[in-house]
Amino acid sequence: MNQLPKTRHSLVARLADTDNGKAWNEFLEIYEQVIYRYACSRGLQAADAENVTQQVLEAVMLKSRTWDASAGGSFGAWLFRVTRNLAAKTWNEREKGAVPLSDGGGSWLADEPSPLAEEQSIFQFEYRKALFHWAAMRVRDRFAPQTWDAFWQGMVQLRAPDQIAEDLGLSRSSVYVAKCRVLRRIRSEIERFEHEFAQHLEVD
Q1: What's the rounded Cα separation, in Å, for the pair 155 and 136?
Q2: Where are the domains of the chain?
Q3: What mean pLDDT comes out for the span 8-32?
Q4: Per-residue CA distances from 34 to 29, 41, 124 (Å)
């Protein structure tokens, strides 16, 4: 089974500080899309997926103020459960028709159904994808446009190296070098993030 993303207690503690914009910006840049795309993968329409995303983020804000790593458990696993529960709750209520999404008591926070391997895999896939794009955008300006285009066309658009080389006026070997250089920098950025924010709490 794929592991859920790990989230370090230092990040959780920093999220509790509402004045710490950097922590929230990095959290939102990665996790907001993860939550939204996971909700969509469960069959929700865009408006419902956005509603679920906002409620999960509100739950994160509340949880960050009281999170106790010493009590055991994982913030990453908790985040997955809340996202999964809210997505399922929203789907069921839309299927039934007229039941309000919020029950006023936040009982969905306490619901902990056994996570399904398939759903964990979807959540993990969306996390890795969001983390890759986040890291890629952070390093993009460090490369010449031609180098970046060679990497992006090959890695993301999946174009053949010969086509990229012809279009950009590069040799085939230069295309490979460009891909390796950018990938190395992206991996370094991801490792920095995961070392800083994702090392402490392990997933149950």
Answers
A1: 11
A2: 9-197
A3: 70
A4: 9, 10, 9
